[in-house]
């Protein structure tokens, strides 16, 4: 029994090691290569990092990082749930923007008490995101259209649709040179966590964290989650196990879209209270990077979201100190590529290593029971 | 037990980090003000998406910055935005600049409106400027706005006079209110001059993120389509994308009308300059410099500073001899200009 | 002609991959014609005159033989008349009987194999490696193949051939190398060796035989299939008017050369494909329209023919693999939640009871050997007490010890009233384990036979379509054992 526990512990430790090895290799590679770029351009290869680390100690920058990470986290969860079954939802970007517009319009037109208004807005955003992603899902299920192509197209269509929705003649309100959807009723504003001088943390960040827990629970503890992961691990085996591939695909797409629909809400409900031309875009695309970096695990994604947000927010200070803040962009790019490569390498290496270990352990076991004749474990 | 701890880890990672990290450390601007705050600092500008190199108003603003630096001999800085940043990020940037002692701090583009308001409240002694927006008229904010419709009206007059096919084109970079002003003025100018002239209009993209202001290829395709349909004068209000419009016009040997700066004189377009009839200029560089000068002189500008035909903030360039030498066009344009300045002609801005 | 024998998983394929440059050795050397070589890819091996005929053919179905042969080596003889002449010449010299203009999709398995051999020769191979060339052939075709191989040998070429069928090896090889668990355990000369000696060398223990002692067939039909038809996209029938009944306690063996509709039949029974016409009934419930999950929940067990594709999540731990296929059933589920503790405990039980050799249930399925993976699958399926079991090649790639064990488990479940559809390429297994035999050929059930009297050769001839109807053992009939009950096409139901 004691030996059993030890073995189990060793396996757990190994899994942890393998889990961490990928991102660490990617990060180290990114830092090294970025330093090379800095050296090549005749600048200090160290100071930018120290500037960026110093930035992370400032409370106002921390607030910015956390707020941004909250949005990234939701977008990355949406991407990750697709990834878990080999679905590539590139459309998170269009889904969250469209969902934010629709929520903003509903928030401006409908005035219920806060206890109803906020859930209504959340529901509206989720439904909008799910519907938009569902179109791609339906196309894939019925016509076999690749979800990659469909979601990219839907991103463009979403932009046009948004352009239409906030026309002054439709739902829009022009403020100066900016197009907006009008200010939302106060009851739909999501209360934030006041950090004094440092600013305010969006309250919705807490919801993002809770959704992370829900994501973990659904994937690892429910039948649905098992089927979804099985489909991702082996479509053929999942089908043979009784998963209805089409239904699973559509469901996953809808869930992914619903999560994506929430990605814009921290900002919308917590700060701008209107959707305008200046509403941030590309959160969905960053979500893809973050989901990759975080290995689709809720904890990994949280760290990845914080890391990417830190790179973005802390790099702003580089400009003032005479460095180009594009350093952070270079790092992000390298991390993304390095992550893909290192994960695959670590995976293959880990699998070989485990096979070898299983072989050795069984050989030892066989050696102990020499009386037993039947044995066979080949690597 | 293990299960519980894993849930806890998964769930509280973000919140815990949020709370714990935020609890420590001062703000970045506290630190900044400690480390600096010299009197040698002057103008700072913060660019709009696209940043430097857009051959358009970001570049024009930078020109004003360089001029201010040379004239007043103080330290200046210009900051680039990141893609997908929020108002909070913009505010943080402006605050950091103000805290470091820069004055004035100018946000280029209407997207800075909420950020300028927020920053101006925190630093009442610093003068803030914003280009293309006039929502907040606080005492320490200068709203540098332009009557683009007026110069566009003149461009419309010139186009209507120059066209032989009775068809002219308008290419807008992004379908936003700011660009609608260019279109509205141009349309009115054309029609007031010759109601029979048809105007073809197209916007390149719905949002700036899709590259409407930064894609010469898109501009080229759009202009080619309009020329195909018979347009022989094409006016663009499309930033960098306008280069494609001018290229297409030169290739088909029809007129192009430039925007923002005098594009006839731009080095990047020297090859095509013979086909650049004129440009509807918007003197961002002067406006930026003027604000810097007023602060330097101790009499900071405040409220709405409008650049129009009267003040020379907008206008029609006449570097192309074929334009300045064409009497018919010149006569019509001069007459229209006088009427606008006198108020006889009211130009629509929508 | 050199034969390489060993059980599945002994390392034969790995060795061949190294010889052909698909894998790199960690240690040791390879010499070709006395010259030591190292390859970095199969291209290097081809350049050295080594050619490989894979177990799974690598031919493009919708191209002609000529096109398939020329594909990838257009530089050798072009793609026109010269290539055609060369193919004709090779075909002539080794009596391969290949028609250059036939479409590959129209060819039978044996013909395809000859095309593969020709392809290798066309590329100038002097040493041919054949990986389990007889696995997909019926006995008559095996003889023809051996004739071809002898021709090659007579022309001065070398042949290395991999097999675990001892009879064949003894009849055709000049020298035999036996490997076990990755090392050479002996060499033998056929003239001085008996199959039994060879087998003992191979496995270190005695060969078990798949024999079913007494019949347990009842007259209660469990699975009734009637008029089942499944069309390919173009309308060509993959399954045509399939009807059979399997009773409680009966093992129905389905013989057939691979690719004659077995896969489609399995898919139709488990619900991966839906019949175009006909019905499937499970003990009175018509299940034709049911999805896979409902079928499995209602008691259909499934040992897939390709366990990696259909039976396992290779990169998931064993206990998750134990849940696979039974995620809605006890002990894996509690309502809509997964009961991880119970599933893990039950995985430990399966590992114990079914003798799955593993250091723990947290290792991935990929790290187990084929035999242990199969034992896990069998254990998993049996744990849910199926009423009807689809057993497709249940012992393929499984070592001898595990083979016997799996046979025992099938026999035991049959005794308790399980109905089994057994599909296997191993005719001994089919004959030994089945109560009833059917032959599938081009999507139709063309013949039936009594496993008590039939010989592999007779069965083989029906598998090629040479004979149909009820097969009687020809020379005699004296000592026949009580025959299994024939399925009645239509009884109550």
From TrEMBL, chain A:
InterPro entries: ABC_transp_permease (IPR001851). Its main location: membrane. The keyword Cell membrane applies. The chain crosses the membrane at residues 16-41, 61-83, 95-112, 118-139, 148-167, 201-219, 249-269, 327-346. It is a multi-pass membrane protein. It comes from the Bacteria. It is found in: Cell membrane. Keywords: Cell membrane, Membrane, Transmembrane, Transmembrane helix. CDD domains: TM_PBP1_transp_TpRbsC_like. This is ABC transporter permease.
TrEMBL record, chain B:
Coiled coil: none annotated. Transmembrane segments: none annotated. Residues 1-18 form the signal peptide. It is a lipid-anchor. InterPro entries: BMP_lipoprotein, Peripla_BP_I, PnrA-like. Pfam families: Bmp (PF02608). Keywords: Cell membrane, Lipoprotein, Membrane, Signal. The keyword Protease does not apply. Residues 45-349 form the ABC transporter substrate-binding protein PnrA-like domain. It is found in: Cell membrane. The keyword Zinc-finger does not apply. Belongs to the BMP lipoprotein family. This is BMP family ABC transporter substrate-binding protein.
């Amino acid at each position: 029994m004691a030996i059993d526990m030890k073995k189990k512990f060793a396996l757990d430790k190994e899994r942890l090691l393998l889990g961490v090895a990928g991102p660490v290799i990617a990060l180290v590679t990114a830092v090294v290569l970025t330093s090379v770029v800095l050296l090549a351009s005749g600048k200090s290869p160290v100071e930018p990092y120290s500037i960026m680390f110093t930035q992370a100690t400032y409370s106002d920058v921390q607030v910015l990082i956390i707020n941004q990470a909250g949005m990234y986290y939701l977008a990355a969860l949406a991407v990750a749930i697709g990834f878990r079954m080999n679905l590539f939802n590139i459309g998170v970007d269009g889904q969250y923007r469209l969902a934010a517009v629709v929520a903003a319009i509903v928030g401006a037109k409908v005035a219920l008490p806060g206890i109803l208004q906020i859930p209504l807005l959340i529901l509206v955003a989720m439904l909008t995101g799910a519907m938009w992603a569902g179109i791609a899902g339906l196309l894939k299920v019925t016509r076999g259209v690749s979800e990659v192509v469909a979601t990219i197209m839907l991103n463009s269509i979403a932009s046009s649709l948004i352009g239409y929705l906030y026309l002054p003649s439709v739902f829009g309100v022009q403020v100066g040179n900016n197009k907006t959807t009008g200010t939302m009723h106060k009851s739909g504003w999501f209360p934030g966590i006041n950090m004094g001088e440092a600013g305010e943390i969006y309250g919705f960040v807490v919801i993002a964290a809770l959704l992370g827990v829900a994501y973990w629970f659904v994937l690892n503890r429910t039948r649905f989650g098992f089927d979804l992961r099985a489909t991702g691990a082996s479509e053929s085996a999942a089908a043979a196990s009784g998963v209805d591939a089409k239904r699973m695909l559509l469901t996953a797409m809808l869930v992914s879209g619903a999560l994506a629909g929430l990605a814009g809400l921290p900002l919308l409900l917590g700060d701008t209270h209107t959707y305008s031309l200046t509403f941030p875009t590309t959160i969905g695309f960053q979500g893809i990077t973050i989901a990759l970096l975080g290995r689709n695990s809720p904890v990994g994604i949280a760290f990845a979201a914080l890391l990417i947000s830190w790179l973005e927010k802390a790099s702003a200070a580089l400009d003032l100190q005479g460095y180009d803040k594009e350093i952070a962009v270079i790092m992000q790019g390298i991390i993304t590529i390095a992550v893909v490569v290192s994960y695959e390498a670590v995976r293959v290496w880990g699998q070989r290593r485990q096979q070898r270990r299983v072989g050795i352990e069984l050989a030892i076991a066989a050696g102990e029971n020499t009386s037993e004749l039947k044995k066979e474990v080949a690597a | 037990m293990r299960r519980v701890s894993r849930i806890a880890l998964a769930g509280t990672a973000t919140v815990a980090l949020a709370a714990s990290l935020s609890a420590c450390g001062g703000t970045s601007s506290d630190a900044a003000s400690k480390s600096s705050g010299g009197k040698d600092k002057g103008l700072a500008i913060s660019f709009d998406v696209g940043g430097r190199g857009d051959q358009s108003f970001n570049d024009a603003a930078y020109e004003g910055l360089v001029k201010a630096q040379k004239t007043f001999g103080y330290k200046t800085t210009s900051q680039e935005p990141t893609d997908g940043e929020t108002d909070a990020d913009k505010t943080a940037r402006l605050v950091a600049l103000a805290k470091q002692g820069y004055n004035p701090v100018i946000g280029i583009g209407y997207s800075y409106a909420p950020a300028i308001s927020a920053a101006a409240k925190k630093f009442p002694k610093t003068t803030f400027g914003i280009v293309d927006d006039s929502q907040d008229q606080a005492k320490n904010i200068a709203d540098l706005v332009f009557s683009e419709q007026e110069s566009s009206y003149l461009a419309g007059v010139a186009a209507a006079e120059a066209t032989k096919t009775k068809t002219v084109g308008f290419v807008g970079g992004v379908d936003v209110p700011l660009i609608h002003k260019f279109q509205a003025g141009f349309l009115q100018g054309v029609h007031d001059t010759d109601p029979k002239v048809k105007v073809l209009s197209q916007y390149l993209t719905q949002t700036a993120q899709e590259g409407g202001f930064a894609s010469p290829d898109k501009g080229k395709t759009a202009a080619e389509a309009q020329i195909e349909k018979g347009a022989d004068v094409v006016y663009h209000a499309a930033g960098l994308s306008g280069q494609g419009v001018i290229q297409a016009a030169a290739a088909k040997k029809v007129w192009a009308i430039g925007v923002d700066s005098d594009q006839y004189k731009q080095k990047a377009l020297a090859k095509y300059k013979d086909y650049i009839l004129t440009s509807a200029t918007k003197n961002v560089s002067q406006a930026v410099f003027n604000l810097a000068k007023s602060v330097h002189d101790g009499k900071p500008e405040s409220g709405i500073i409008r650049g129009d035909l009267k003040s020379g903030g907008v206008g029609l360039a006449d570097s192309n001899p074929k334009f300045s030498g064409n009497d018919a066009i010149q006569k019509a344009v001069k007459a229209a200009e006088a009427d606008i300045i006198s108020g006889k002609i009211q130009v629509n801005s929508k | 002609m050199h034969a390489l024998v060993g059980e599945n998983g002994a390392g034969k394929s790995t060795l061949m991959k190294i010889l052909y440059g698909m894998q790199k050795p960690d240690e040791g050397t390879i010499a070709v014609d006395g010259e030591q070589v190292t390859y970095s890819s199969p291209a290097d091996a081809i350049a050295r005159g080594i050619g490989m005929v894979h177990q799974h053919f690598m031919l493009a179905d919708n191209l002609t033989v000529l096109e398939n042969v020329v594909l990838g080596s257009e530089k050798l003889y072009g793609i026109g008349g010269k290539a055609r002449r060369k193919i004709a010449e090779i075909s002539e010299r080794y009596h391969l009987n290949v028609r250059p203009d036939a479409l590959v999709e129209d060819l039978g398995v044996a013909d395809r194999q000859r095309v593969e051999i020709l392809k290798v020769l066309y590329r100038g191979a002097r040493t041919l490696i054949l990986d389990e060339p007889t696995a997909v052939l019926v006995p008559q075709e095996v003889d023809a193949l051996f004739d071809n191989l002898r021709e090659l040998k007579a022309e001065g070429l070398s042949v290395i051939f991999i097999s675990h069928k001892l009879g064949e090896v003894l009849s055709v090889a000049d020298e035999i190398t036996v490997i076990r668990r990755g090392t050479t355990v002996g060499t033998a000369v056929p003239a001085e060796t008996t199959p039994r000696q060879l087998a003992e060398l191979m496995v270190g223990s005695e060969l078990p035989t798949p024999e079913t002692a007494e019949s347990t067939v009842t007259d209660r039909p469990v699975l009734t299939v009637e008029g089942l038809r499944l069309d390919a996209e173009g309308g060509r029938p993959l399954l045509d008017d399939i009807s059979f009944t399997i009773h409680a306690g009966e093992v129905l063996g389905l013989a057939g050369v691979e690719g004659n509709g077995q896969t489609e039949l399995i898919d139709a029974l488990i619900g991966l494909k839906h019949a175009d016409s006909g019905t499937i009934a499970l003990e009175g419930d018509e299940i034709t329209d049911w999805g896979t999950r409902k079928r499995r929940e209602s008691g259909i067990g499934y040992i897939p023919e390709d366990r990696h594709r259909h039976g396992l999540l290779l990169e998931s731990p064993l206990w998750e693999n134990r849940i696979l296929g039974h995620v809605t059933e006890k002990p894996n589920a509690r309502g809509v939640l997964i009961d991880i503790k119970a599933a893990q405990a039950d995985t430990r039980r399966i590992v114990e009871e079914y003798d799955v050799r593993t250091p723990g249930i947290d290792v991935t399925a990929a790290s187990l050997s084929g035999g242990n993976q199969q034992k896990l699958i069998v254990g998993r399926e049996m744990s849910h007490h199926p009423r009807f079991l689809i057993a497709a090649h249940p012992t393929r790639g499984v070592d001898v010890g595990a083979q016997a064990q799996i046979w025992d488990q099938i026999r035991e479940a049959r005794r308790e009233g399980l109905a089994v559809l057994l599909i296997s390429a191993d005719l001994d297994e089919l004959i030994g384990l089945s109560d009833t035999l059917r032959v599938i050929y081009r999507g139709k059930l063309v013949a039936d036979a009594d496993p008590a009297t039939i010989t592999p050769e007779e069965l083989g001839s029906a598998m090629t379509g040479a004979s149909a109807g009820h097969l009687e053992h020809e020379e005699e009939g004296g000592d026949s054992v009580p025959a299994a009950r024939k399925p009645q096409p239509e009884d109550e139901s």
